[in-house]
Amino acid sequence: MTPPIPRRNEPGSPPGEVSTSKWTPEQIAEHLSGSEAKMKKAENKGTYVLVDDGSRNKKPKVTPDMAEYLKLRAQGYSRAYIAIEWGLKETNLTAYWIRKWGIGTKELEHAAIKKYKESKGQAEQTPSVNVESPPAASDKSASSDEIEWFIPGAKPVAACVGIIRDGLSISRTALKLISDVKPDHMSVGLCADGLILKLSPAGMKLATGKAGGAQINSRALARWIESKKIKAQRYEALRHAPGELLIKVEYE
């Protein structure tokens, strides 16, 4: 806690008690570094964070240079870091100089940084930070016949059943495999071939699902499926017998 501020003594009143306290180096570091969440977020973005601890007043002010600014930004330094290094306030750097250079928006700034990197042949290396490097991309481009393109609004052709958080999701096409009329109740079992879904008045009640499908909303069922080490994903549903569906599942 911050030491209390002593009150000014009123005439005729006894002097007030003044208490002092000392901060440990850990408390000072925590105070200067800000919240842990903020630091972690900045670290994940690959930027440098420098908290103004009064060092700005000790640094001589320099005339901001756009090329030097883009160089530092290309290396991963934040605006706050550059402002402190230049002995400026961050608001002065962003509200005046960056706008003066014509890169006031993020889009314009990113475009300028990209152009700077290209002009330098990407010679500027980003400083190492404690973040996991993304996997290297393969040089071999995928051929057109190996790409499965997503089509907005397209519906799956095959009948399918999905294992979801609260139970099962059954597509409309899967329901039509076992009944011309939308069923009300269904039982779920497990055999050597996979899951069996069977129409049964004594089974679990079906709720309305997406796109004309149905759902079995049961956390108890979801826990039972999880206990069987069945992967939670969407599976193709096959007609097994009259009024029954077979879902060949995968196990963890």
Automatic annotation (TrEMBL):
Region (Disordered): 1-25, 117-140
Biased composition annotated in UniProt, kind: Polar residues: 122-131
Name of the protein in question: Uncharacterized protein
Organism: Paenibacillus hunanensis
